[in-house]
Write a structure and sequence with these properties.
Radius of gyration: 20 Å
Strand order of the largest sheet: 8-9-10-7-11-12-13-14
Helix content: 25-40%
CATH class of the largest domain: Alpha Beta
Number of domains: 2
CATH superfamily of the largest domain: Dihydrodipicolinate Reductase, domain 2
Order of helices and strands: EHEHEHEHEHEHEHEEEEEEEHH
CATH architecture of the largest domain: 2-Layer Sandwich
């Protein structure tokens, strides 16, 4: 049995990456797509071989043959449309950041609990074998006790019409890509940070952060990251232990057409581990579909999202105050 998915909108990530990947899944079937522009919905459906196209989100949500919704809409529409989907009895996989505030996310949790549907945040890294393997090596003690994690993630985007440069839509570097090193640090260490400190540089025209650097202090280790939206494209994660290190070569935009690589160095020597070719969006879709079928939690449940958002909000507060602050949970 396959879960029948409907997609809200024709966002680039949806039509370019997620939908084609989910169509290759064993447990997922993309059955419908909607857009406020019916022509765009029909064009995407024809190009991607999707059976149904709708000219409104509500028409898709009313379709009784749709089991689950993928929501890749702009950040400020994540919670409102996900709540409407839940009220229509649809399970929801929503892009990150799933909410823009604690209170907004609590509204979504209330809707989930009231309707009984499965709702999760689309941190695809949680399903990728390279992250599972990195965590396995770290937990094995091979590189000694964890001491620090160092992450860089950046790209260049000065387009004034891009939603990532619009504060009203929840734009900015921290929410767009800084959420990843926050999530992956928590994922690797299995802990929550006790305090955080941040430096933020804002664009004078767009009024969103274009360079954010953060320090997360966990009980066992520190995590340091920098993310930027107006600098050269780059991404890397290094995990340092007492006696060794792990480098994740392409941590976030993992290629679907070739193996990923982990570089592991210890006192006994160094090696390269290849992670077999896979598509993290295929894995994410199937994992979520199985959670629906088996009535189990999704890969990233809303309680995890709430903890991640608490760290993001603390980073913003720290940058504004100039001091380290504790996440409020």
């Amino acid at each position: 049995m396959r879960i029948r998915w409907g997609v809200l909108g024709v966002a680039k990530i949806a039509v370019g990456k997620v939908i084609p990947a989910m169509q290759r899944g064993r447990h997922s079937e993309v059955s419908a797509i909607a857009s406020r522009d019916a022509g765009k919905a029909r064009e995407a459906a024809q190009r991607l071989g999707i059976a149904k196209a709708y000219g409104s989100y509500d028409d898709l949500l009313a379709d009784p043959d749709i089991d689950a919704i993928y929501n890749p809409l702009p950040n400020h529409l994540h919670v409102p449309l996900s709540i409407r989907a839940a009220q229509a009895g649809k399970h929801v996989l929503c892009e990150k950041p799933i909410a823009l505030s604690n209170s907004e996310l609590c509204e979504l949790i209330e809707a989930r609990d009231r309707t009984g549907v499965v709702i999760g945040e689309a941190f695809m890294v949680a399903s990728h074998p390279q992250w599972l393997r990195a965590r396995e090596i770290l937990q094995s003690g091979e590189i000694g006790a964890p001491r620090s994690i160092l992450t860089a993630f950046s790209y260049f985007n000065r387009d004034p019409g891009n939603i990532r440069n619009n504060p009203a839509y929840g734009g900015g570097a921290l929410l767009d890509i800084g959420c990843y090193p926050v999530f992956t640090s928590r994922f690797l260490l299995g802990e929550e940070p006790t305090s955080v400190q941040a430096l933020i540089q804002n664009d004078p025209d767009f009024h969103v952060d274009i360079l954010t650097s953060g320090l997360l202090r966990f009980p066992s280790a520190d995590s340091i990251f920098t993310c930027g939206t107006q600098q050269t494209y780059f991404q890397r994660t290094d995990i340092f232990g007492e006696t060794g290190r792990i480098e994740i070569e392409i941590p976030f935009n993992a290629p679907p057409d070739r193996p990923c690589r982990l570089f592991v160095g210890t006192a006994a020597g160094s090696r390269t581990e290849e992670v077999p070719t896979c598509d993290q969006y295929t894995l994410q879709g199937d994992a979520f579909s199985l959670a629906i079928q088996n009535s189990t939690p999704p890969p990233v449940p809303l309680e995890n999202s709430l903890a991640n958002l608490a760290v993001l909000e603390a980073l913003f507060r720290s940058a504004a105050s100039g001091h380290a602050v504790a996440p409020e949970r």
